[in-house]
Amino acid sequence: MAGSESPKTLWVIANWKSNKTIEEALHWLSLVGPKLPYRENIKVVVCPTFLALEEMKKAIQVGNFPILLGAQNLSPFPEGAYTGEEAARLLKGIVDLAILGHSERRRNFGETDEMIKNKVAQANQNGITPLVCVQSEDALVPEGCRLVAFEPFEAIGSGHPDTPEDADLVAQGLNKKYAEDLTVLYGGSVTADNVQAFVSRDHLFGVLVGGSSLEPDEFVKIVENCSLI
Ligand code: PGA
Asked: How far is the CA of 1 from the CAs of 132, 170, 172, 210, 228, in angstroms?
């Protein structure tokens, strides 16, 4: 995707992982929602646990906050006899996006490229935007996925982000490989202090934020700092 549009559209996606009760999630929303700067070109997405999705959806609507909702995963199968899974059709209408193939899922839950390919297909069939996480330029981006987060393994939760230059090069490489058709985000130890350096690069169109998204003030600052570019 070309980087010359002005202003470019940026994604700021909060990945809460396995954190926050429903009550804590709603508290976060009550602090963050009213403070978020509304910008046509910034898409803010929060991805809580499955349990909190429904309540968060209602509270976002009631507060009329400029926030979209995402899931952190979904089933590679359609609805049916798949104990413990959340099928995409059941999430339809609640979430706009789903994070798929996060390295924590690949590592701890044995997710394979094949499973991720099926999850992407399920998401697309149900009107949910798939966001696939990749660890390098060589990673496979499944057909039907146009939104990708480059998240180098060592940068996740470590306080040691990749350099914006390197992340930009990887994004450029991915776009070359996939015919300029991807929107690439960066993830891994993003903070309010470093976010601008990433999103101002030509080939990066936003961030996937883990730890720093849990803290309301820090997250608001991340969105504000994106608005400055
Ligand atoms: P982090 O996590 O921001 O805590 O490094 C990012 C992610 O895993 O998506």
From this structure: 16, 13, 9, 25, 21
pLDDT in tens, 154-180: 999 999 999 999 999 999 999 999 977
Cα(143)–Cα(219) distance, rounded to whole angstroms? 32
Residue 16's Cα: distance from chain center in Å?
10
CA dihedral sign of residues 170, 218, 99, 126: negative
Report the DSSP beta bridge partners of residue 149.
133, 185
State whether the beta carbon of 161 lies less than 6 angstroms from ligand 1: no
Q: Find, among 149, 141, 113, 145, the residue nearest to 129 by Cα.
A: 145
For ligand 1, whether the C-beta of 10 sits within 6 Å is no
The CA distance from 207 to 86, in Å, is 25
pLDDT in tens, 16-26: 999 999 999 99
Which helix H or strand E contains 173, and what residues bound it? helix 164-177
| Residue 2 pLDDT > 70 | no
The residue whose CA is least distant from atom 9 of ligand 1 is: 210
Q: How many helices (H) and strands (E) does the chain have?
A: 8, 8
- Say if residues 164 and 195 touch (Cβ distance below 8 Å): no
Stretch (H or E) spanning 12:
strand 10-15
Does the pTM of the predicted model rise above 0.85?
A: yes
